[in-house]
Amino acid sequence: MLSVAGLTKSFGPRLLFQGVTFQLSGSRRIALVGGNGAGKTTMLEIIVGLQEYDSGTVSKQKGSRVGYLPQEILDVWTGSVIEEVLKGAAHILDLEVELRALEGRMGTTTGDEHDQVMSAYGDLQSRFEQEGGYLIEPEARRILGGLGFTAEDMDRPLADMSGGWQMRASLARLLLQNPDVLVLDEPTNHLDVDSVQWLEGQLQAFPGAILFVSHDRDFIDAVADRVIELARREAVEYVGGFAEFVVLREERIRMAEAAAANQARKIAHAEQFIERFRYKATKARQVQSRIKTLAKLDTIHVPELEELKLRFAFPEPRRSGRVVIDIKDASIGYDDGLPVVTGANLVVERGQKLALIGPNGAGKSTVLKAVLGQLKPEVGTVELGSNVDIAYFAQHQVDALDLSKTVEHEFRQKVGAGAGNRNLRTILGSFGFSGDAVDRHVRDLSGGERTRLALAEVMCNPVNLLILDEPTNHLDIQSCDVLEDALQAYPGTILLVSHDRYLVRNVAEALVEVRDGKVTQHLDVEERVLNPAGSKTAPKSSGGTSKTSSKRSGKSGGNAGGSSDLRKSDVRKAEKRAEAEARNDKSRSTRSQRKNVDRLERQVGRADDVVAGLESQLADPKMYEDKSAMKDLLATHEQAKKKAADLLAEWEQAAEGLD
């Protein structure tokens, strides 16, 4: 489908990467990981043709379509959300235009020409139907709904919406386009947990190949079957998700260390031989042979893990009261409509680290604004405790950086006296800016590096309440590790909003769920709350000991205990008896399994019939005249598709177990 061979790219004297080779074929899903500034985005832009490269080749299968989602969208939006998303299906809409033109010609032609028009219309209509033309708008609305858009949002002008929602619309347009290859640069940025899980399901079902950059470990594990690490100007490919990548990388380093140590021993022995017999005539040939061997030897270099290590001690903040935030029966909203959150009750005590989760638009930011004093509750109270000092990191914090300044000057200006007697360069070093990096201009930093700088500015000052709204957007995995370490070491109280489930698990001690206008506090980080959609695949059983194996182990254990008198014929009888018991056990167990597989197969068939019937209704243009009925039908269709998919997954698992 798409292949890269020997790819090399430099920016002036700086070599970004060289000799990069990999294949993106069939339905392969590759996650590209590496540090900020390693060249991940540059690699994607080269592959889709937006940047030139120094040497190597990028080959694409003839006729294949590549869809690309960049980190930053620069499009000019002129239509509503649904209109802009439908542009992703331009190839299908063009077919519809041709159909309308042929329909017009039907009434103006006669004889052979009319027959030709009718034949062309039939062929084009069949192609239009195969491409999903009659269901293209329902499909667009389904995708938008999965990404968090309401039915009302879909008809709003996209230009009036925030950058995050515009990014979602771009993603929806790309998914509707349904290309052969998807190239995605941080697709989970600006998504909430629910939308990330929905996107995981969409990409798992996507029939083509996927190449993506992401900092989200859970997302990588759910989507990728291979990981390419871009580091030290080279790319190394590993089979598996992120968890497998970590294990295999460590194994690769251990093997390289062992090979390097073995090589070092051989070199030392050769050098000792040369030094000992250099001037002995009878050993001259052997000495020269070893000298030539050492000259030709390629030294084995052990790859080093480029990890950012936190060495930053937070300034000790003043001690706040026991209750830091107290929300009582609060209804919070805006002047132009109904309250976003009603009847909210929440008590946050000193030192607690809580994560706010829930879909976008449910009210997480509304709650934060009330805590910050930017919104007054219409009913109830939102109060801070005594001696509470707040630092707030917003999603748009990076936009406030002065691009014309160096990293050190920008940091010094924003932090000021807040750094106290601490060395500013030491603080910057703990956030990944060491050596000459502090003298770089902010405009030359990558998106993740700018986010790190903004985080350093917020987290440097001595405060006892830290509020973070999606701090991992644009960060690489190493930077997320730095942030995680920093938040674990932070001595104050934390309110964290993040779609990164890995970060939430490792930092938060409890969850605050904001959903359907309600605020619910959970006393732990419950997976069913953090991951409401659940796992798509059941975990493989580690297995208990079967009845047969228990009997066998018990019998062999007795033999090991000293029953050495057992003759060979007795052993054979015991083995045959155990084998017969195993066959009987297997027959009894598979009988119920076979019945279950047959039952599920029938249910899958019925569920598919229901989905097909609903899709026939959605194909009726009159259905879109009544928005309320359309919304209900779309919801029913989505539920039916989910039920059919769940049943199919259950059937596949049962069939696999039977095999």
Give a topology summary.
Layout: E1 2-11, E2 14-24, E3 29-33, H1 40-47, E4 55-60, E5 66-69, H2 81-86, H3 90-106, H4 111-130, H5 136-146, H6 163-177, E6 181-185, H7 193-205, E7 209-213, H8 217-223, E8 226-231, E9 234-239, H9 242-277, H10 284-296, E10 323-332, E11 341-349, E12 353-357, H11 364-371, E13 379-384, E14 390-393, H12 407-415, H13 424-430, H14 447-460, E15 465-469, H15 477-489, E16 493-497, H16 501-507, E17 510-515, E18 518-522, H17 527-530, H18 547-560, H19 568-618, H20 627-658
Parallel strand pairs: 3-7, 3-8, 5-6, 6-7, 12-16, 12-17, 14-15, 15-16
Antiparallel strand pairs: 1-2, 1-4, 8-9, 10-11, 10-13, 17-18
Helix pairs in contact: 3-4, 5-6, 9-10, 12-14, 18-19, 19-20
Tally of alpha and pi helices: 20
On the 0-100 scale, what is the average pLDDT?
A: 80
Distance between the ends: 32 Å
What spatial form do the alpha-carbon principal axes imply? globular
In percent, how much strand structure appears in the residues?
Answer: 15-25%
What low-confidence regions span 5 or more consecutive residues with pLDDT below 50? Answer: 535-571
Assign a percent range to the helix content. Answer: 40-55%
Q: Quick one: how many beta strands?
A: 18
Rg (CA only): 31 Å
The computed structural class is alpha/beta
> What can be said about the biggest beta sheet?
6 strands, mixed
Order of strands, widest sheet: 5-6-7-3-8-9
